Amino acid sequence: MARDEGRGRIALVTGGASGIGLATAGVLAERGWRVVIADINEAPARAAATTLGAEALALDVTDEQATEAAFDDIEARLGPVEALVANAGLIQPGAPPERLPLQEFDRVIAVNLRGAYISCVAAGRRMAPRGRGGIVVTGSVTASRTAPLHAYAPSKAAVVHMAACLAAEWGRSGVRVNAVSPGYVATPPLRAAMERGLRDPRLLTKAAPLGRLVEPEEIGAGVAFLLSDHASAITGINLPIDAGWLAGA
Ligand code: NDP
Which helix (H) or strand (E) segment is 189 a member of? Predict the structure, then answer.
């Protein structure tokens, strides 16, 4: 992939201070995008941005007004946002449905679905009149296969379908919308679940034909491809990046 693929265009990555978002921000920066890291807490967003030579802002993606204001601010200071990675998400440890508090269900849907929708609409309403733009949402392999994660998995199925609906809506305006669906990636929430014995790394790796977890940079590479001109005819798809986990299941 070319180092100047981004050509200095602006890419906003939500949840960009940690894990998959941070790695994706790094890959995009390497490929010549001007990256803006948005995350719910300012300090980690700033720390991540400093390492990558990126911009940072504090943003709760569930707040529509704040999201619109953030886009206005970035566009006034830096220029048009040409790529959005709607990645911020809550990974729910899981509980049987009978014991999953409804507030927890609402919280997961609020961030993973409603928050992604708010970011996508803020991006699309600006990109469509300009006739260009790319959006990638972070789904999950649990969007395609059942998992005992009774808020998380449905939220990811919905966000993947949302991306396809938005692709159909904005395709004629030159805006492409796709999803990536990571398999298991050892980011802080998964590492915490492993440490608490809630996930067994041996079972996760055994279930994947490649026999390993996925590196966060491998998700970033998929996102960068979907945002690049190499993917100019690709919209409305869901790209699993899962070490073969869905195929091997
Ligand atoms: P991380 O927790 O490492 O990164 C998520 C980031 O999003 C954190 O910095 C978190 O902040 C931030 N965030 C949470 N809520 C909000 C909000 N309301 N507004 C803005 N930022 C917010 O997790 P991952 O990197 O693992 O996950 C990234 C995405 O990838 C998620 O959508 C997740 O569902 C998805 N995914 C992850 C997989 C994995 O195995 N790791 C597998 C499949 C999908 P804070 O930590 O301060 O809460």
Answer: helix 188-195
d(CA 21, CA 37): 8
CA of 172 to the centre of ligand 1 (A): 31
Position 150 in a domain:
yes
Q: 29: domain range?
A: 10-183+216-238
Q: Whose CA is nearest to atom 3 of ligand 1?
A: 19
The span from the CA of 163 to the CA of 107, in Å, is 20
Give the SS3 label for residue 233. coil
Within-domain flag for 179: yes
111: Cβ below 6 Å to ligand 1? yes
Active site residue 184: no
Pocket test for ligand 1, best of 46, 57, 90, 109 (most atoms within 8 A of CB): 90
**Atom 41, ligand 1: residue with shortest CA distance:** 185
Q: Catalytic residue among 33, 71, 117, 152, which?
A: 152
pTM above 0.90, yes or no: yes
| pLDDT tens digit sequence for 150-201 | 999 999 999 999 999 999 999 999 999 999 999 999 999 999 988 988 888 8
Residue 82 in any domain: the answer is yes
CA diameter of the chain: 51
Residue 5 located in a structural domain: no
